[in-house]
Amino acid sequence: MSDFKPISLEDKPLFDDFLSQTPPETSELTFTNLFMWRRRYQPQWTIHADCLVILFLDRPDVWRTFQPLGRGDVEKALAFAIEYLSTHFGHAAISRVGPSFAQKYASPHYEMIEDRDNSDYVYLAQDLIQLPGNRFHKKKNLFNQFMKKYDFEYKEVDAALAPELLQLQESWCELKDCASDESLLDEDHAIYQALKFMDVLKFRGAALMIQGRVAAFSFGEMLNPDTAVIHIEKGDPAFTGIYVAMNKLFCENAWSHVTYINREQDLGIDGLRKAKQSYNPHHLVTKYTLIPRK
After folding, report:
1. How large a percentage of the chain has pLDDT more than 90?
2. Distance, CA of 175 to CA of 182 (rounded, Å)
3. How many CB atoms lie within 10 A of CB 6?
4. Helix axis angle, 182-196 to 162-176, nearest 10°
5. What are the residue ranges spanned by the domains of the chain?
6. Which CATH superfamily groups domain 5-119?
């Protein structure tokens, strides 16, 4: 890809500048997310028509482009990306497109196809903090059980604590047999990369300590002015209510000032979909694939 280059840590200021020009709706479009998942998605970028154009490996041997970022000539940037993909790979599409962008650019040049499995779940921050009413009765009970049963400490994550988080991740991977699941191996690598470079990436993280060791951790960052996105949440399932507690306490301590919490997609996995729906999302950020019309 002679016109594109792989993402690197040194690119963060440039990416942050373009992202600030057009604050994203979708969870993929943060520098942290693109950097930590670069083994899986191999993002490549260039500047065209004063827009940031990012290609990524959506599936094996299937390259796509994200929606261009910035205040430049988006239509020219799109045409450039589509031509590049068509010329070099024989196919072209714009993937993981947010609803506002899709509605603006879908017609008449692009067919719009809903991508339900990658649509983001978005919650009211105060719902996740307060767990109010009958809708959250089971979650509130689990949280109360956790509070009564365990003597724990809530800690903000810094680079010094990162190795202890990785110990929990290693144990979790042994339990889930990550070695036999390529997607879990990709996630394991993403978590390692995020924690290794957290001082540069500057996301926020927290951990729950029980009996002197990390029992759960989570990290995320601001996605746009009224929404935080949670990239990762891990817990030791031996502790009753650990995930409910981690989610509630992290939102309470780190994200009480925002309106919404984006907890990313379910990838079409039944168990993950059920878990995300159990928190009563306020709405989904529906994503689309835009395919050029012939």
Report:
1. 94
2. 15
3. 11
4. 180
5. 5-119, 122-264
6. Gcn5-related N-acetyltransferase (GNAT) (3.40.630.30)
Q: How confident is the model at residue 294 (pLDDT cuts 50, 70, 90)?
A: confident
Same fold: 5-119 with 122-264: yes
Burial class (CB in 10 A: 0-12, 13-18, 19+), 159: exposed
Count Cα atoms within 13 angstroms, Cβ side, for 161.
20
User: What is the value of pTM for the model shown?
Assistant: 0.95
Rounded distance between C-alpha atoms, residue 219 and residue 162, angstroms = 11
**Beta carbons of 55 and 63 less than 8 angstroms apart:** yes
Quick count: other Cβ atoms within 10 Å of Cβ 114? 13
* Token duo for residue 173: 């991977």
**Rounded Cα gap, residues 274 and 276, in angstroms:** 6
Query: What's the confidence (pLDDT) of residue 1?
Result: 55
d(CA 180, CA 185): 8
Do residues 232 and 218 touch, judged by C-beta distance below 8 A? Answer: yes
Give Cα separations from 276 to 234, 242, 263, 266 (angstroms). Answer: 14, 16, 8, 7
The CATH label, of 3.40.630.30, 3.30.1330.30, 1.10.260.40, 3.40.190.10, for the domain at 122-264 is 3.40.630.30
CA angle (14, 160, 198) in 5-degree steps? 15
